[in-house]
């Protein structure tokens, strides 16, 4: 029987609070099978989570109790049912540090407010690594208790199989494996004595009253100090200027020195090699989640990730000298598969519509006879649920609901692939118009959501005009993107 997480989490909430929640709202999915919900009772909210991976849950519950007891800014564990894979924690709100980072108009612009928040974040990191790691029960770590050679090789092979082997470039696999072994031998000299957060990045930093709070540390284990700072400063979509990265490294090292003895030269000797290792892990995840699981968010991140790798190769050549790995990286960053596509101006206009099938398909006024029409009626329908009935595919609750379903991600991934191929062909042939429509039963939820996601995707990837029209909602927008 299929588990219905919102039902068992609501039951846990009632057991904990003595009251039934007024509503259980889905929160947008992450890259894992975990599902999150916001439970509302009056003006009080908590977060409920379901994770079928019970060993990973055990690590999260244990770490949360420990970090909270040490005064570190993490959610408070309110209740749990480990056998069912569910738990309830305090609500840290909706604002991620990631949103603040990507909302800036220009990559080189770091406001005083943003810098202050970034500095606060990196100064808290060593407290997790040193104080948080003290007396921590590492026996619950999952899948391993230490970031050892095996862990590093898993990440390197993740990158090899899901990126290098799918990119079409050639390399000598035995020589590459030899380089992997030399690379991991070098990295192990950095030490594995401290708590390594493992996924220390801005999506896992919540801002509450302007202060950073931290989530998603269940993959933590013993490891090197450099890895987490590398993860944060070189997050693919952060685009921090080099001088800001250097300042934040110093902010981190100054705070670390208050807690533990640190040799800055030794720290920096291993820092950039760990930047590479983290980027390899991220690229492998994007390849797996994006190309094999067909999840659009991850597939779209491949291009900027490879661009970031190219910048890293130029600014900080890989050390130690690893000939075959460096050669493969150079080929990858020059491969047409992941290079920016058509960032030249184009006269193409893509008209995207949402509609209700019961009112007929949209009219194509360009005289070209129409374009793609995608039927969304096979997707999960939020309109069947009372709490979403009066909302649309633009409301956050509906967006979160639809984004939790893997089949919606797969549907959009296929739509993006087909649309991209047509648009690139139309740009090359200097065509002027393409129409793409999404239909569902009422033209209110699924079709609106899918049309908006495609508009975002195309506006971010091509220099074209995107006209968006939600027919049943009477909403029209035009987007003209200018890439640098």
The gist of it:
By secondary structure, this protein is of the alpha+beta class. It has helices spanning 5-17, 54-69, 97-102, 112-132, 149-162, 173-188, 226-233, 242-259, 264-292, 296-300, 302-315, 323-333, 396-403, 406-428, 446-461; strands spanning 23-27, 35-41, 44-50, 77-81, 86-90, 194-196, 205-208, 211-214, 221-223, 349-356, 372-375, 433-440, 465-470, 475-480.
Helicity level: 40-55%
> What would CATH call the homologous superfamily of the largest domain?
Aminoglycoside phosphotransferase (APH), C-terminal lobe
CATH fold group of the largest domain? Aminoglycoside 3'-phosphotransferase, Chain: A, domain 2
Order of helices and strands: HEEEHEEHHHHEEEEHHHHHHEEHHEHEE
Give an overview in words.
Strands 1-2-3-5-4 form a 5-stranded antiparallel beta sheet, with helices on both faces. Strands 11-12-10-13-14 form a 5-stranded mixed beta sheet, with helices on one face. The mean pLDDT is 92. The radius of gyration is 24 Å and the shape is globular. 45% of the residues lie in helices and 15% in strands. Helix 11 packs across helix 12 (323-333). A hairpin with a 2-residue loop joins strand 7 and strand 8 (211-214). With 484 residues, the chain is of the alpha+beta class. The protein contains 15 helices and 14 strands. It folds into 3 domains: 5-90, 2-Layer Sandwich (Phosphorylase Kinase, domain 1), CATH 3.30.200.20; 97-333, Aminoglycoside 3'-phosphotransferase, Chain: A, domain 2 (Alpha-Beta Complex), CATH 3.90.1200.10; 349-480, no CATH class. It has helices at residues 5-17, 54-69, 97-102, 112-132, 149-162, 173-188, 226-233, 242-259, 264-292, 296-300, 302-315, 323-333, 396-403, 406-428, 446-461; strands at 23-27, 35-41, 44-50, 77-81, 86-90, 194-196, 205-208, 211-214, 221-223, 349-356, 372-375, 433-440, 465-470, 475-480.
